[in-house]
Amino acid sequence: MRIVITGASSGLGEALALHYATKENQLVLIARRMEHLDDVAKRCREQGSEVETIIADVNDFERMRQIGETLGTLPIDRIILNAGMSVGHSGGITPFEDFERLFKTNFLSIHALLEPIIPKLIEQKTGEIVFISSLASLFTMPTSIAYSSSKRALNAYAEGLHYQLKPHGITVMTIMPGFIDSEMTRKNRFKMPFWMTTQEGIAKITDGIKRKRIRYAFPFRFYLMIRIVSLLPQSLRDKIVNFTNFKKGA
Ligand SMILES: NC(=O)c1ccc[n+]([C@@H]2O[C@H](COP(=O)([O-])OP(=O)(O)OC[C@H]3O[C@@H](n4cnc5c(N)ncnc54)[C@H](OP(=O)(O)O)[C@@H]3O)[C@@H](O)[C@H]2O)c1
Fold first, then answer.
1. For residue 83, how far is its CA from the centre of ligand 1 (angstroms)?
2. Are 196 and 218 in contact (CB under 8 A)?
3. pLDDT at position 241, please?
4. What separation in Å is there between the alpha carbon of 230 and the centre of ligand 1?
5. 51 has which bridge partners?
6. Fewest CB within 10 angstroms: 111, 129, 175, 188, which?
7. Residue 25, Cβ neighbours under 10 Å: how many?
8. Could you give the percent of the chain with pLDDT greater than 90?
9. Among 199, 231, 226, 64, which residue's Cα sits nearest to residue 134?
10. Which residue pairs, CB below 8 angstroms and at least 24 apart, start in 186-192?
11. Chain segment 197-243, per-residue pLDDT in tens
12. 149 lines ligand 1 (CB under 6 A)
């Protein structure tokens, strides 16, 4: 299989690359930090995979379009849109610049890369597009308005793309993980409910991909809690959010 992974230099992207690094798979790994990416590529090659690395900032949309054009010249079996970032806010109004950065990285960059690739997948009549969204897309805390908004926009995009591409034989999957150990979550200064190790998280993600889950949110108990809270009257939801925010010390 030819598998493209964005954000493969650390965290979930790195672990996904290593998971799929077998001699049957050719990997294309994308990220900004060359040393990290080269190290991941080296370990993937040691496991038998053919690996191409592309050093790029996903916020450079013109570059993303060019990369998309080039990647699309060969068949793509699976593309995992994983590159992403978060910015936590302890209070106050979210700066516009944070919204801009998060929407560019977590959302807009994705279509810049996919726009030239999608027609190729349609020609192929096969292929998988996997979006790494987040449980945070289903519930917005006052401390993560920009992050949740960017991931919710991604869900809406993925949903539409699923309906658009399913008739062409293309599977579009949206994975919504809870808290998983990574560089991103190591910065969090609050207790992360239902926290998972990277290996536990990757086992869930790769299982969801294997089973072609169109929308896959986990861990289940955390997802269930979010669903239940979303069904409560607003006054009760307000109380719960105030309480959890207070516990975070936000
Ligand atoms: N960990 C969690 O609990 C969790 C939960 C839900 C969803 N997610 C999502 O999972 C994805 C991976 O996050 P992670 O937890 O593995 O965090 P991470 O360790 O910080 O990894 C983020 C990856 O994205 C890449 N990236 C970030 N900005 C980029 C840019 N402008 N251009 C190119 N690459 C960029 C980084 O590479 P470079 O810095 O080398 O460019 C890195 O490889 C993100 O989309 C995140 O929102 C994570």
1. 4
2. no
3. 87
4. 27
5. 27
6. 188
7. 20
8. 89
9. 226
10. 187/88, 188/88, 189/88, 189/249, 190/247, 190/248, 190/249, 190/250, 191/247, 191/248
11. 999 999 999 999 999 999 999 999 999 999 999 999 999 999 988 88
12. no
CA 52 to chain centre: 20
Domain 2-248 has CATH 3.40.50.720: yes
Marked catalytic residue, from 147, 157, 216, 223? 147
DSSP 20-34: H-STT-EEEEEES-H
Is the CB of 182 inside a 6 Å radius of any atom of ligand 1? yes
Residues 111 and 94: their CA atoms lie apart, in Å, by: 24
Amino acid, res. 206: T
With CA atoms as reference, report the closest residue to 206 among 12, 27, 1: 12
Task: Quote the ligand 1 centre to 136 CA distance (angstroms).
Answer: 14
Name the token pair of 121: 């997948």
The preferred substitution site among 4, 10, 141, 148 for testing ligand 1, maximizing ligand atoms within 8 Å of CB, is 10
Tell me, using a 6 A CB cutoff, whether residue 216 lines ligand 1.
Answer: no
**How crowded is the C-beta side of 99, counted as CA atoms within 13 Å?**
7
Q: How far is CA 215 from CA 105, 138, 159, 209, in A?
A: 21, 12, 9, 10
Model confidence at 55, pLDDT cuts 50, 70, 90, reads: very high
Domain ranges of the chain: 2-248
- Catalytic, 147? Answer yes
